[in-house]
């Protein structure tokens, strides 16, 4: 996708998610943001509910399936930063959030984000 196409898609998703479209940054930044927002929209964690669905019903369904609240860490993959990054990630071994990663440091992100970052040359898969 071109930067213009990514920007247009981010603006569409911002409207759906009820957010301001932050279209600043490099193409890699925009690709990462796009992957995160699309993943958020696809997994239903966008905070939007259908008219007949309440948050409690969503949580009850989740607990009925036996899923833990920390299910996100299972879907994460470890990657190694090639460059300094500002990310929304988890520490490699603990479930602590990480905002900045130096080159050579290992951290965890979703598989979708990891693939996008690896394709852009920002990280290497572990």
From TrEMBL:
It comes from the Bacteria. Residues 37-73 are annotated as: Disordered. Residues 55-68 have a biased composition (Basic and acidic residues). This is Phage DNA packaging protein. It comes from Escherichia coli.
């Amino acid at each position: 996708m071109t930067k213009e196409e990514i920007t247009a898609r981010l603006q569409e998703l911002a409207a759906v998610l009820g957010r301001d479209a932050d279209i600043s940054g490099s193409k890699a930044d925009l690709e990462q943001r796009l992957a995160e927002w699309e993943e958020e929209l696809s997994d239903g964690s966008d905070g939007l509910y259908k008219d007949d669905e309440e948050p409690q019903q969503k949580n009850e369904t989740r607990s009925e399936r036996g899923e833990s609240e920390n299910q996100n860490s299972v879907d994460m993959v470890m990657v190694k930063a090639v460059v300094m990054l500002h990310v929304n990630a988890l520490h490699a071994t603990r479930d602590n959030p990480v905002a900045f990663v130096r080159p050579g440091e290992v951290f965890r992100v979703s598989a979708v984000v990891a693939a996008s970052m690896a394709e852009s040359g920002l990280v290497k898969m572990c």
